[in-house]
Amino acid sequence: MDKLMIEGGYPLEGTVQIGGAKNSAVALIPAAILADSPVTIDNLPNISDVELLSELLKEIGGSVELSDHEMTIHPEEMFSMPLPNGRVKQLRASYYLMGAMLGKFKKAVIGLPGGCNLGPRPIDQHIKGFEALGAKVTNEQGAIYLRADELKGARIYLDVVSVGATINIMLAAVLAKGQTVIENAAKEPEIIDVATLLTNMGAKIKGAGTNVIRIDGVESLHGCRHTIIPDRIEAGTYMILAAAIGQKVVVDNIIPYHVESLIAKLREMGVNVEERDDQVLIENHKEKTGVDIKTLVYPGFPTDLQQPFTTLLTQAKGTSIVTDTIYNARFKHIDEIRRMGADVKVEGRSAIINGATELQGAKVRASDLRAGAALLIAGLMANGVTELSGLEHVDRGYENLEEKLVGLGARIWREQMSEEEREQVKS
Ligand SMILES: CC(=O)N[C@H]1[C@@H](OP(=O)(O)OP(=O)(O)OC[C@H]2O[C@@H](n3ccc(=O)[nH]c3=O)[C@H](O)[C@@H]2O)O[C@H](CO)[C@@H](O)[C@@H]1O
Ligand SMILES: C=C(OP(=O)(O)O)C(=O)O
Question: What Gene3D superfamilies does the record tag this protein with (predicted)?
Answer without folding.
Answer: Enolpyruvate transferase domain
